[in-house]
Amino acid sequence: DANPATADFSTMVADAAASAVETVRTGDQMAIAGLNGQAGLQQVVEATMAMESTVQVSVALRDKLVEAYQDIMRMPI
After folding, report:
1. CA–CA dist 62, 68 (Å, integer)
2. DSSP codes of every residue in 9-65
3. Rounded Cα gap, residues 53 and 5, in angstroms
4. Are 58 and 20 in contact (CB under 8 A)?
5. What is the pLDDT of residues 47-70, one digit of tens each?
6. 27: buried, middle or exposed (CB in 10 Å: 19+, 13-18, 0-12)?
7. Is the per-residue pLDDT at 4 higher than 70?
8. Is 80 exceeded by the pLDDT of residue 20?
9. Backbone φ and ψ of 2, nearest 5°
10. Structure pTM?
């Protein structure tokens, strides 16, 4: 693992994306386990809420990145 103080931006984004994907996968797996009676309601709710929060943050980050890209493209050369 890279030291967070020395990690470059692309590494930080890649790590965050990998973490987001893992959170969503865990939420999906927990929902399936709940439907099969292998997980409690509390676990399913917690995993679902973590997944929802992760998706909201990811969408907000994507929107900001797109907005920044559009601002850069509008700059005169």
Report:
1. 10
2. HHHHHHHHHHHHHHHHHHHHHHHHHHHTTSS-HHHHHHHHHHHHHHHHHHHHHHHHH
3. 26
4. yes
5. 999 999 999 999 998 999 999 999
6. buried
7. no
8. yes
9. -80, 150
10. 0.69
Closest CA to 34 of 59, 51, 57: 51
Can you read off the two tokens belonging to residue 60?
């907000």
The Cβ-side half-sphere exposure at 15, using a 13 Å CA radius, reads 10
- Sequence-distant (6+) residues with CB within 8 A of 28 are 51
Neighbours of 55 (CB within 10 A): 14
pLDDT of residue 12: 85
CB atoms within 10 A of CB 47: 21
